[in-house]
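ugh ok so i messed up the first submission bc i forgot one of the chains. this is the corrected input, ALL of the components this time, i swear. 252 residues overall. if the numbers dont match what u have on ur side tell me asap before i send this to the collaborators (the ones from the other lab, u know who)
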Amino acid sequence: DPVGPHSPAAPPAPVVLVTGAASGIGEATVRLYAERGHRVVALDVDRRGLEPLAALEGVAVLVGDVASEQSNAEAVALAVERFGRLDAAVLNAGIGGAGPLEAPGAVERFERLFAVNVRGVVLGLRAALPALRASGGGSVVATSSVSGLRGDPGTWGYNATKAAVINLVRAAAIDYAAEGIRVNAIAPGGTATAMTAAQVADPTFSRFITSRIPAQRWADAREQAEVVYFLTSPAASYVTGVTVPVDGGLSA
Ligand code: NAI
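and heres the new structure output, hopefully the right one now
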């Protein structure tokens, strides 16, 4: 078979970095890429959560913090050392929670939210861009949120970080488009993960949330991963600078 996978002409399987890989949307994304024959570097602060992923074919795991320049550099270096290149970076790690604006410690919590949710994306971009360029182009997908498109009660700091990601992606996309590097985001609506587990498990609260979603249900993490996959794929080769809502119609 001259065009089979072992032909010298076959392009190498794409190499993808996923942050926040140990749980939820990130974990579903790692599994989807691995199933489809991609090679993946999975970065997370949660060492135990990464263990099941380390057993997957073509997946290398790394314990690190996206708010650290060194962790981002190590993750990209691992992709290049282990798999020879980097084609995409899925900058997904994020944390929630802030508490009332006037509560003690609110400023410190806000600074940590920004360090993970915004600085983490900036550092991920800075680490990934030279490697994407060296691969002849590529793409980045950050995880924003419907909370970046609107206000919600009690999550002012989180909403600020997710709005920041949307415009960071727009501006960075302009800067790198001519080099064939695309920069996009997804804006998930309510998705059943560790982050939302308490809300999903509370029948009254869960019904309140889903009653406001046109699709009338929470998303599965896999439904987010599918859109991330599309955005990094050649099918999305002319898509850059956008944030795609994946929210069952919540932001419609
Ligand atoms: P999750 O809590 O299940 O997974 C987040 C992962 O990120 C965890 O494995 C955690 O250890 C990791 N992480 C946290 N801080 C980190 C750091 N500093 N460095 C490296 N890894 C770190 O949550 P989920 O829901 O999968 O969240 C993924 C992204 O999706 C987040 O950015 C979140 O804000 C966003 N999102 C989630 C929604 C939802 O309803 N679940 C809705 C909209 C956005």
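quick check: The longest helix spans residues 106-134. that seems consistent at least. The beta strands are 15-19, 39-44, 59-63, 88-91, 138-143, 181-188, 191-192, 219-220, 243-246.
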